[in-house]
Structure formats: structure tokens, C-alpha cells
């Protein structure tokens, strides 16, 4: 036992703390959830590549360019992927930027919603926020596809909305920046 009173207090405090929550990390036949429906992908040419995940826990599937393209400085371009997809019902595909392209080259994505009933070619809208052109090569990973569940409630017109603490505050109102919005 320590003679230091501060150490004794720490030990006592630790003993009275609530126990940590335990999370089950193994699955057996009774707790296994069914596999999600597959993401269906159709190659539209030999240059189309199936989306891939960079790791077992990656949220998004990497999407590949089907041909060389230049994203002009301070401009935008539609990048061909030469694939079509069918996302599962009650989901949509969200095209998201790749963090490395954004942080290193100022490349961002736009207009990235793929509905469950869309079957056309997937194209990626890339924005170049840099002062120099950006070269995309065939086979480059240009974006990621994140499959997200959606809820589509019935639209109901009402005369009044329920009051909340936040009210109509928006555009930075909860972060203390509301006064700077013009």
C-alpha cells in the first residue's frame, strides 16, 4: 500500500467507478444476422472495374476511372467509370470524395446520389479546387461509393411545426458563428 494519499484516493475512485460495458465480439448461429443483399455491378466495357474496399472495415467502395481525363484547374469534369450498379432496396449509393485526393490535390466530388432504381452508367463529377490541372489516369481510384439506408416517409402538410429548443437557428447557430453568416 502506498503512503501517498493521492495514490490511495485514485485507487479508491477506480474501485467505485461503474464497470465497463462488455461488448460481445463473437457470433454464433443464434446471433448471426443475415448477409446484406449484394451490390450488383455490370461492366459496360473491358475498362470498367468492379468497386473494391481498401480494408475489411472500409465504409466505401473505391470507384475507378475507365479512361484518362483531365480535371482543369478551378474546373470540373465527369469521369467515366464504365459500370452500372443496382444498390439494394431501401438504400442509395452516395458518391463521396477520397480523402487523399481531397487533402493532397484539392479534388472533391459533387452531385453524388445514386437511387436504387437507377441503372444508367455511373459517372463521377470531380471538382478541382487547385490552380493547376489534375490528371486522372485509367484505373485511378477517383471516388468512393458508400451504401446508405434511407427512410422515405409520407409527406404531410401541417399548419405548425413542434417547437424545439433550437428553433429556426441554422448555419452555425449551435457553434457560436451565427453572427458571422451574411
From TrEMBL:
Pathway: Pyrimidine metabolism; dUMP biosynthesis; dUMP from dCTP (dUTP route): step 2/2. The keyword Glycoprotein does not apply. Its EC number is 3.6.1.23. Coiled coil: none annotated. It catalyses: dUTP + H2O = dUMP + diphosphate + H(+). Pfam families: dUTPase. Keywords: Hydrolase, Magnesium, Metal-binding, Nucleotide metabolism. InterPro entries: dUTPase, dUTPase-like, dUTPase-like_sf, dUTPase_trimeric. The keyword Iron does not apply. GO terms for molecular function: dUTP diphosphatase activity; magnesium ion binding. Residues 1-41 are annotated as: Disordered. Its cofactor is Mg(2+). One of its GO terms (biological process) is dUTP catabolic process. Residues 48-175 form the dUTPase-like domain. Belongs to the dUTPase family. Homotrimer. Involved in nucleotide metabolism via production of dUMP, the immediate precursor of thymidine nucleotides, and decreases the intracellular concentration of dUTP so that uracil cannot be incorporated into DNA. This enzyme is involved in nucleotide metabolism: it produces dUMP, the immediate precursor of thymidine nucleotides and it decreases the intracellular concentration of dUTP so that uracil cannot be incorporated into DNA. This is Deoxyuridine 5'-triphosphate nucleotidohydrolase. The lineage of its organism: Eukaryota, Fungi, Dikarya, Ascomycota, Pezizomycotina.
Amino acid at each position: 500500500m502506498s503512503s501517498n494519499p493521492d495514490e490511495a484516493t485514485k485507487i479508491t475512485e477506480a474501485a467505485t467507478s461503474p464497470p465497463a460495458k462488455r461488448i460481445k465480439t463473437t457470433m454464433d448461429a443464434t446471433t448471426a444476422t443475415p448477409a446484406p443483399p449484394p451490390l450488383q455491378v455490370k461492366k459496360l466495357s473491358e475498362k470498367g472495374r468492379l468497386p473494391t474496399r481498401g480494408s475489411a472495415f472500409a465504409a466505401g467502395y473505391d470507384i475507378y476511372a475507365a479512361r484518362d481525363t483531365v480535371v482543369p484547374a478551378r474546373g470540373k469534369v465527369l469521369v467515366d467509370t464504365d459500370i452500372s450498379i443496382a444498390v439494394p432496396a431501401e438504400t442509395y449509393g452516395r458518391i463521396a470524395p477520397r480523402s487523399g485526393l481531397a487533402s493532397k490535390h484539392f479534388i472533391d466530388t459533387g452531385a453524388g446520389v445514386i437511387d436504387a432504381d437507377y441503372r444508367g452508367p455511373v459517372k463521377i463529377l470531380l471538382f478541382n479546387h487547385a490552380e493547376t490541372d489534375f490528371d486522372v489516369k485509367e484505373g485511378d481510384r477517383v471516388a468512393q461509393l458508400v451504401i446508405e439506408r434511407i427512410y422515405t416517409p409520407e409527406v404531410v402538410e401541417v399548419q405548425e411545426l413542434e417547437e424545439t429548443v433550437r428553433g429556426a437557428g441554422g448555419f452555425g447557430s449551435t457553434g457560436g458563428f451565427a453572427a458571422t453568416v451574411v
